[in-house]
Amino acid sequence: MNTKKSIAAAVTLVVAGALVACSDGGTGGGGGDNSNATCTNKLVNTDAPVVTMWAWYPNMEEVVDNFNKAHDDVQVCWTNAGAGGDEYDKFQTAVSAGSGAPDVVMLEADRIPTFQAQDALVDLSDLGYQDVKDNFSAGAWKDVSVGDGVYGAPVDGGPMGMIYRTDVFDTYGITPPTTWDEFEAAAQKVKDAGGPYFASFAANQPAYVTALMYQSGAQPFEYDPANEGEIGIDLDSDEIKGVLDYWSGLVEKGLVGTEDQFTPEYIAGVINGDYATYLSAAWAPGYLQGAGVGEGADAAVWATAPMPQWDTGNPIAINWGGSAFSVTKQAKDAKLAAKVAFGVYADPASLDAGWKNQVIFPLNLTVLKSDEFQNYEVPFFSGQQANKEVYVPAADAYTGMTYTPLGQYYYSALTKQIAAINEGSTTGSAAADALQADVVAYAKEQGFTVK
């Protein structure tokens, strides 16, 4: 099984699961014929050719309207086919069926290789990439690339920082730790004084833990579709064992919580002051406020600082999350679809609305370098210029990750190992060894040659 076709078949097994049926007209699907597509938005120029799009950004209708008003040569017909997994299931169904996909689809960066391996996405290298290349950092482009191909137009990202409660830090005489050793020492000081958990190590957030691995200098995967059927897997390296041992030590000492994040119980704990810090991405303030954090008793207590480092002399910026627009192989006109992918969330009005309303953290360098964005006083952080102090430097320094078609299986396997660490049934190093064996075995079962 050393051909692209075999790999695509294997990858289909990874993501297929319980797929949901989708109809072409009901979800705005394209599949090369947009004449019957149903749009959520209203087209401005009904005589122009139409490009169908699936996307779930909260302000997507406004973004599409901005694009359509500015273009007489093409119109976007947009539908929200579901957020994240719901959309991916529908897209997978369309890919497997060979019809029913939109021309342009919103994908998180770590999902791109899965669909690229199935020959479901168009390489944008010669379809406008060169015209917008300088608008984004090298790290942003790496995240949407597979090998030498570019399979997405970057929109938003998640440069990471350490959100913390100023009231907790003031009560226990803590200053923002700059190293992980200082982080543990501060956590121990707070615990010894009867204070809250210093952070959480949640099993249901494998992408966040993977980012921590990269920060230690690890390179968990090597993957290039040009080396057909080969994949490098290095999940039991000293760097990864060091990260997992560090966090398993914090768990064992009772310094961090182990509850799942993004649950009502977790949010209640954040509001109640059960955690001194929240290690997260630049999109976190919008998410937290949407969940009710920062109102009432916990208002005006939040600030942010750069992520602690293993080596302050060699800091490594990391990222959690980020999405892009990809052109599907079912697009009727790939060149026109690429124009939409690169342009639909790139105008100043849409970008301004996105970041000012905390819908996205934009990766467009024009925005990142602007005085307005740099000097913005973030209300959630009581007027702190968090972009300038934390998130823009992290975005600028971020060099990207290597995603693979096995990403979703890897996340599932890592989740199991973190859960085992949290329940005390394994050590960090042993978890890394088990993770390596699990993912390698799975890759071989799917027909990959593991380097």
UniProtKB/TrEMBL annotation:
It comes from Homoserinibacter gongjuensis. The keyword Secreted does not apply. The lineage of its organism: Bacteria, Bacillati, Actinomycetota, Actinomycetes, Micrococcales. Keywords: Signal. This is Sugar ABC transporter substrate-binding protein. It holds the Pfam family SBP_bac_1. The keyword Magnesium does not apply. SUPFAM superfamilies: Periplasmic binding protein-like II. Residues 1-20 form the signal peptide.
